[in-house]
Amino acid sequence: MFVVISMIISVGILGLMFWLARQRESGLKHKYALLSDLRQVLYTCRQHRHITHMALMSGEIRRTESAPLSDLLIKKSQHLITIARSDNKPMYRVLQMKLRGLIKNWPDYSVARNQMVHGKAIRHCMFLMDEIILSWLVEVNREDLTTEYHMNWQQIVDAMDALTQLRICIQDMEKEDGKIRIQHSADMVCRKINQLAVISPLSVAAPDCVRSLQQLEKISQGEEYQLDAEAMYQLTADVSLNISHVYDQMLGELTESLYVPLPKSLPA
I need a labelling partner for 211 at 20 to 30 A (CA). Which of 66, 204, 240, 259 fits? Predict the structure, then answer.
């Protein structure tokens, strides 16, 4: 009788352990799926911003060029709403509302407003990703990674804030006080990007990033190095891409240590 009871208890414990393992695996897969889709939305939103920016700068508004990206943004944001937990669905619905708004209204935006509206959607994606990562780290009791992640996240956000300030200055770059603000903002962006080398030295040392930093340094020093507004916007787009590379590498390393790495190439 004792042997039978022991076997029943053993089987029960094994069953419970198996169930807990299944639950944990399911939770990991869910967080990974949310991160992957948000990463795709962020990347696609950046592409959409670039295409619509070029259209607004040229004055040739053709929705057909941005239509595939618009469709993908709606498709991915809807999928996020579908797979999100019930208590988190409102945040993903807000993201989709922002995306629908910029998709519908971008032809009526100024270049500066187009940058700002897309930037808000990108930030929304990043904050949703941040929430997932933080809850993930708490769940697996990785306090060591939590501290490092907080520091890296703050540096990336600071770099994005500095870049936003530089973009705001572009519309007034022909004015004398606007030039002074451009120089100050360019210097701030340089410093923030150089600080990102701690997170991803290879990204900051990449030739494209080095060229962008050299241009920003010349602007910050007030040298006879003049760029028109279109060239300045392109420069800030290049810098934004460099920050994105740092952020993506940080995410990849983090998910690899927690579960599996994110795909090297983004899915269509």
Answer: 66
